[in-house]
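Quick one: structure for this chain?
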Amino acid sequence: MLGVVVLAALVTHGFGLLGRRDAGSGEAPLFVRQGNKIVVPPDSSLRQRLTVMPAQVEPVRPKLLLPAIVESDPTRTASVLTPLAGRVVEIKVALGDRVSQGQVLVVIDSADLAQAYDDNDKAADAFALTQKNLERQEGQARIGAVSDRDLDQTRSDERQAAAEYARTQARLKVLGISADANDRSRLLTVRASMAGSITALSIARGDMINDPTQPMMTLADLSTVWVTALVPEKDVGSVAKDQDADVALAAYPDQILHGKVLFVTDVIEPDSRRDKIRIAFPNPERRLKPNMFATATLLGPAQTRIVLPTSALLMNNDRTSVFVATAPWTFERRTVDPQLEEGASVAIRSGVQAGDQVVVKGGILLND
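Got it. Here's what it folds into:
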C-alpha cells in the first residue's frame, strides 16, 4: 500500500503538463504513459508533489436543494364576498390589517336587504293568519260544521305558510341578520369569517357591487404557512411525504427552519416540468410572509458512500475524474459520479471502490 506523500511546494521549472520531459532538456521525464496508465519514474520530481490516500467509506445523507416560495395555506385563505348587491358605504379595514373573527369589514347599502326584510314580514304575517284559520276550522270541525276537505286545505295552507316563513328567516340568517332586529335599515354589514390578515383589497368607497360572486378582499390566516418547493422531474423519485426538510429564507439567512414534507402533488407542472412539494410551518409572529423566496433542502435516508476530498476531483471535458494507483507509482484515470459535496469533501456514487489509492493532491500534474 502506498504511503501518503506530503505535497511539497509547487516549484515551476519551466515544464508544461506533458506526458514526459523534452529529451533534449537532459532532465528525467515527469511520467511515462503506458497505454491508459501513467507511470511516475523513481527519479521524477512528481513523486514529491503527489499525495495519495485510500478512499474512505462514510455515512452520508443525500441532499436535494430546491427553489421554494412562501405561500398561504389555501384552507386558511378566504375570499370575502357580499351576499347581496349594493353600494359600498364604508370600508372598515385597510390592506395589510389584521382582523379578528366577526369583525366588521365592509358596510353596504343594499336594496336587496330591504326586500329580504319585507319578504320575511309578509311570510310572518301569512303564517300567523293561517294559524288562526286553522284554529277556527278545527273548532268548526269538532261540531261538524266544516267538511274534511276544507279542513285538509286549511292545514295545507298553514304548512305552506310555515315553510315560507322558515325560508325567509333562514335567508336573513345567511345574511348574518336577526329577523327580530330593531334596525331595519338597508345597511348590510359584512364580517370576517375568521381571524387573519387582509392580503388583497379590490373595492373603494362608493363602488357599486352588482356581482356578489366577485371578491371584495382576501382574508388569510397566516398563523401557519406553506413553503412550496419545486422538484425537477428527474428527482421526483427522491421525495416523499414526511421526508425531513430544511428551509433557508433570503430574509433570514442565519435561521434554518426544520420541517417535514406535508405532501407531494400528483401532477407535474406542464410549463416547468417540476413537481410541487409543500412544507408547513407555524408562523405565530408573522415573520414568514407569502411570496418570500426560500431554498428547501431535502434530506434523504442515511447511506454509506465513498467520500473523497474535493481536491481529488479533476474536470476532463464534460466528465469528472480522479487518478487511482493500480500499482506503486502507476496511475489510471477513472470517471466518477459525484453525488453530494459537503465542505472540503464529496460523496461518490460510482467509479471508486473503498480502499482504492486515490491521488488527492497534485493530480492536476498528471492531467495532460
